[in-house]
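Side project, low priority. Logging it here so it doesn't get lost.
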Amino acid sequence: MDLDVFVTAHRAEWDRLDHLLRRGRRLTGAEADELVTLYQRTATHLSLIQSSAPDPALTGRLTQLVARARATVTGTRRATWRDAARFLTAGFPAAVYRSRHWWIPTAVLSVLLAAVIGWWIGVHPEVQSSIAPPDDLRELTRPGGEYETYYSSNPATSFAAQVWTNNAQAAAMCLTLGAFLCLPVIWILFLNMLNLGVGIGLMSSADRLDVFLGLVLPHGLLELTAVFVAAGTGLRLGWTLIDPGPLSRRTALAQQGRAALGMAIGLAIVLFVSGVIEGFVTPSGLPTWARIAIGVAAELAFLVYVYVLGGRAARAGETGDVDSTDRSDELPAAA
């Protein structure tokens, strides 16, 4: 495309659109119709320039012009409680449901990796000695040792807040860093499973695996599920960069990125619940079976939430992306 010829042919339309947007008084019916028509044409012009002959100055001008026109045409929209309710009952669970083919395999492989690491450490004393001196290991695994007192080392409220912050940061990193070809997500997952596997291996070597699982399962089921969902979504985002499918790479990445942003908000709520369980239930004096039952109930509630509400919303066409009125204008992709 000859950019100079294109600009010459359409400059008058852009100037007319800019003039209509700067009008201090209300537009007449004919002027409003003209503004909508010019807005649609300018959005198309912007897409053509971006794909065929990108020019920073011209692209910047048209982007601002289209944004101003869009705000005028659609009006200013504010988030409402109805938007929040729709997000919690449809958008977020549907996004988790639609990404299940990514996070369920991620969860299975990660748990298997943690189990293998735990077995390897548990049956090899030389590996244990490479982790820490024997006296330190005994201090970690003994009754009343550091593995047990960790959960009651701080007041429940501050401990829950600290756990929630750390887990939310890990989930956010998985969601955002997936765009870097999935590699940072895989590394974050490996570190988490390594820590879990070390705990399993050391406590099993001390014949106290039941105690360790009794401490981890109440909060760990929901917490790890949230991490696996974040990791699976991050991996999906990274794979979109590699294989965007029928959409353009930019459009597909924007769509998945917006859904991932919503997932970050929803998973922060899920991790808040797991943090409360870790801060108040895990170190409590409840019997082990009761603490584990609370963790299992929280996990089942989340899965029902995803598969019932999310499945229903996904079948109705919900993707977890923002509403169509809040998206940038895009040209249809060729089949």
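Brief comment: The mean pLDDT is 85.
Revisit when time allows.
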